[in-house]
Amino acid sequence: MTTKSTIPQEKILAAAEVMFASKRFHEVLMEDIAIGAGVGKGTIYRYFKNKEELYAALLKDASTELMKLIENAVKAEVSCKNKLIVILETSINLFDARPHLFDLILHAEAFQRTSVEFPWQETRWNVIQLVESLFILAEDQKEFFIQNPKESALLLLGGLRAIIRFGNKPRQKQLCNDIVDHFLNGFSKSLPLAT
C-alpha cells in the first residue's frame, strides 16, 4: 500500500524519468522536474540531495523493479525454456511500460564516471548470471544443451536489448517464445532442393 509520504517521491521520479530521457543531464533543471511532478522545488530536496542522487534513484528503482518481476516470473515456471521465455517477456514488458527507461540507461552509460557506481549494472549482471545458470541447469536436467553458457547468455540478452530498442510494436503475442525457440533450435531453415 502506498503511503502519503511516498506519493510525492513517486511523482518526482516519474517526472524526472521523462526529463532525463528527453534532455542531456546538464539541461535538466530541478525546477522543471518540480513542475512536471506538480510539487515545489523544495519537496524534491526533501527526498534527493541533488540531481545526481535523483538520477541514480531512478535507475535503482527501475533495476529493483525489474529484478523482482523476473524473480517472481521465474518462480512460477518449471522448465528452463519457460523460465527463459518469462525473463524475456518480463524485460520487454517493463521497458514497454516505461518507454523512457531505455534512454535513461543509455545516457547513464554514455556519461558514467568510473568513480560513480552505475545502479543498473548489478541487475544486468544478475540477469546474465540467471540466464547462464538456466543454461547449465537445462543441461543437468537433459532439457537442452547450450555450448558456452556465459557467452550464450550475453548473446541472448544482447539480442533482447536490440529487440527492446528497435523491435516492432505492438509486440507479437508469441515473440518471446519464438526468440527462445530460434535461439535453442537455430534461426535457419533448409531451402527446398531445386528440381
Provide the low-confidence segments as ranges.
none
CATH topology of the largest domain: Tetracycline Repressor, domain 2
Largest sheet: none
Q: What's the total helix number?
A: 9
> Overall 3D geometry?
elongated
Count of spatially separate domains: 2
Structural class, from helix and strand content?
A: mainly alpha
Please identify the top-level CATH class of the largest domain: Mainly Alpha
CATH superfamily of the largest domain: Tetracycline Repressor, domain 2
Order of helices and strands: HHHHHHHHH
Q: Count of DSSP E strands?
A: 0
Strand fraction: under 5%
Bin the helical content.
55-70%
Termini distance?
A: 68 Å
Mean pLDDT: 90
**CATH architectural designation of the largest domain:** Orthogonal Bundle
Q: What radius of gyration results from the CA coordinates? A: 20 Å
